[in-house]
Specification:
eight-stranded mixed β-barrel; binds ligand C2E; binds calcium ion; membrane; Bifunctional diguanylate cyclase/phosphodiesterase; transmembrane helix
Amino acid sequence: AKNSDRGSYKLFNAELSQIVSSRAQLLLDLKEAVEQKQLTVVYQPQFCVQKNIMTGVEVLVRWHHPKKGMIPPSDFIPLAEESGLICAITDFVMHQAIHELTTHELLYRDIKRVSFNVSAADFNHSESCERFIANLSSLPGDWSVIELELTESAALLNLEGIKNVLDVLRQRGVQVSLDDFGTGYSSLNTLRLLPIQEVKIDQSFVKDIIKNKQDAKLVRTILAMAQALHLRVVAEGVETHAQANYLMSAGCEEFQGYLYARPMSIEHLVTFIRNLKQQ
Ligand code: C2E
Ligand code: CA
Ligand code: CA
Ligand code: CA
């Protein structure tokens, strides 16, 4: 038994070191990706279905690896957060999206809100606030079109530091959204301590809303709470009419998901908006 134990230990070790080295390789690749412009951004529209208007877009990063092809954010964002590389990615995403949207003259006129995903690690440095300000300074107009989406699990770590930065940005009009709402450990505490105007109901709640009574009740509770606190609510991951209808009847007003639009390039967004107007 001892021998085979040792054997499995070795095996485990070998697997582990392979995981470690492939992660290290991925991190090296990611550094290169940031420098060599392998990253792009896509936009996913959000809608107020009742009023039949597009309320905004969420910006999502994409990585086209030269050999491995498309790598999903869930595979590299955590790595970027741990390594601190996320700051460079956030800088790129903000610059690129603002550049593309202003080049195509979509901001302010057609698009009233642009949401960026930010990580707790984006707030970890003494110059975090200046960084955000520098990134947003290329905006041709006021900053109330900008929204930062913060995940509550991320916020937990450095609530005080995050609050200080958000307070400054709030004064300039930037809006704040709590992403993946309900999935973290202290959603209410985060809501209480940070200057938040919007919550996003996580897609894990939306997914089974029709079948799962418990999920449906939780979503209704989130909506009631948001209403009491005068928070906007966006439901994410809406894929079916049944989900949308249920959410609407429960009082949800803003929707994002494949049912309405998938994340798309700036060129597709231009066409998408043009078609919306012709409807
Ligand atoms: P998230 O912020 O919760 O973004 C929503 C994710 O759900 C996106 O995945 C989007 O493509 C996907 N999605 C949208 N509608 C639907 C739907 O109807 N059904 C399903 N099944 N999925 C839908 P994506 O683009 O792969 O991003 C995954 C996560 O990676 C994001 O989750 C966000 O946490 C993170 N992320 C993406 N871009 C950035 C970024 O620029 N910066 C940071 N820090 N994180 C990012
Ligand atoms: Ca988000
Ligand atoms: Ca989510
Ligand atoms: Ca998220």
